[in-house]
Amino acid sequence: MKFRPRIARGLLALFGGTLLLGSLTACAGRHGWHEAGADGGAMRAHMVERIGRKLDLDADQRQRLDTLAAQLQRQRQAVRGDTADARAPWRALFAGPTFDQAAATRLVEEKTAAVRSGSPEVIAALADFYDHLRPAQQQQVRDFIERRGGRWSRHG
Prior knowledge:
The chain is mainly alpha-helical.
């Protein structure tokens, strides 16, 4: 069937986007993306520069990576919300003598809706970036995913 490669490619893109989003979120929490200002331009530029060096990206590929990073940053902000303390809504669930199940359900639905609404743009940006890599660069990305992030991974 012809749709199987398309499905596999879509799943790889979704997995890759999730991996990148998780990596950026982890980096943001540990390295101050949240402190880099509302647009996080300095942190994003640093990330694009670092990945650009590792993959030996040309100017067009770096622009596509920057677009992907901007989409991921917008997605992260949408999931995180406008609050200065992203953990406050979660802590509120435990504030009383019982766990607020209704509020937890609303919170999870809000976060899920934010991911669902922003995912098409993230996936499109990821596909655009990946599809414009040379085969050797694509292999480097696959190797990185296979190693689960190498030294940046929490699991090895």
